[in-house]
Amino acid sequence: MNDIVSKLRQGGGTQSDGAVIKLAAVRMQAEEAVLQAIIEVESAGRPYDDKGRLIILTEKHVFWRELPQILRAKAQRLGLAVKKWSRANYNGLGGSGSDARWDRLEAMADLHETAGLRSASYGGPQIMGFNAELCGYPSVQEFVLAFAENEANQAEAFLTYLEKVGLLQAIRTKDFRAIARRYNGPGQVSRYAGMMQAAYKRITGRSAVSTEQTGFLRLGSEGYRVKALQERLVALGYHVKPDSDFGPATRRQLIAFQVDNGLAADGVVGPITSEALETAVPINAQPGGTRENMTVKDLRKSGSQTVKQADRLTNLGVVGMAIGAIGEMLGISHLTSNVKTLQDVTAIIQQVSASIDPVFALIGDNKFLAILAIGGAVVFLAHKIKQRRLHDAKEWRHIG
């Protein structure tokens, strides 16, 4: 039985008197009613159940992602983890405050405490455990214990999260569309922004009027103008998907463009940024901007993590090929199961098996030939990864 989950199950959480919102509004230089409206919409659920326990919801697909690879198969067998989200993941959990939810969290934490705690959402805001650091906590353990203590900690963490993800300016200017886009994701911007505006009107008795300039493209914007912006950024060498949705990825690339061109890095397409976009020269056409002579060695020297990981794959593949070749030459008929290098190479089989299945058909049961084939496939895969990274770098697709 996990100690932290056992402590959480004891309950005892206390409700908030709202003072934390007043203090946060002063600190953030924002209108208190805006923060109240956001929390009302995004924290619509109760912070605690009838026993004073945190409202929680576990996520199997997140647990799969958070677990060390070596534990994923076991978690899957136990019914605790799956690769992808589906509604079926919640079967048997019951409603809000059910013991079944706590039983599942405890089983997850028993298998791996940190991964388990990071794979559930908590309290009124239903913030995922993996966001603990963004909420101002050094560990997910401290995060959940603070949430269990009182509702004020939950509100403070939620507002800290909004600040950390770059929404302070949107809060100050009552830009509810930007807030909804960042917190609720694409597809529900209008719905959640409308709910926040309605809550603000109920709280204050007046409609929310954003102090942002109307007509400017920003986080939460959508439509053909956003797609045109994205296509222009791509043409200039900034890597973003033209999908008509001004999300965090588009904002990051726009800010990169603004920084590169000496503009105010606010992530908003105002008149000055719009003019700069029209007259800008693509990065690879600027003086000193060519990367035609760049090599994988240059990327390695610059500290590319992609190349670093691909080099590790290359080394594993070469070792696998060597073991396979030596074993075949010596006619060894069995493998030593505790050789770590063989385990590392074998762990990559799933990633490359589709491309070497025809080879396995020819190999039959010869294990050393199989390792030789796997090693060769891994080396080839690593080479392709490095070449792709080099191509992207030459096209300036990795900015910042």
Largest sheet: 3 strands, antiparallel
Q: Which shape, going by the Cα principal axes?
A: flat
Give, in order, the helices and strands: HHHEHHHHEEHHHHHHHHHHHHH
**Count of helical regions:** 20
* Helix/sheet category: mainly alpha
* Estimated radius of gyration: 26 Å
Residue stretches low in confidence (pLDDT < 50, at least 5 long) are 333-343, 348-356
Distance from N terminus to C terminus (CA atoms, Å) equals: 45 Å
Number of strands: 3
**Order of adjacent strands in the largest pleated sheet:** 1-2-3
Strand content: under 5%
Number of domains: 3
Q: Write down the overall mean pLDDT.
A: 83
Q: Helix content range of the residues, please?
A: 55-70%
Describe this structure in words.
This protein is mostly helical and 400 residues long. The chain has three domains: 3-181, no CATH class; 224-285, Muramoyl-pentapeptide Carboxypeptidase, domain 1; 297-394, no CATH class. It is 58% helix and 2% strand. It is built from 20 helices and three strands. The protein has helices at residues 3-9, 19-28, 32-42, 60-66, 69-77, 99-111, 113-118, 140-149, 151-164, 168-172, 176-184, 189-204, 224-235, 248-260, 271-279, 296-301, 305-330, 340-346, 349-363, 367-394; strands at residues 56-58, 120-122, 127-128. It has a three-stranded antiparallel sheet with strand order 1-2-3. Helix 11 (176-184) packs across helix 12. The protein is flat, with a radius of gyration of 26 Å.
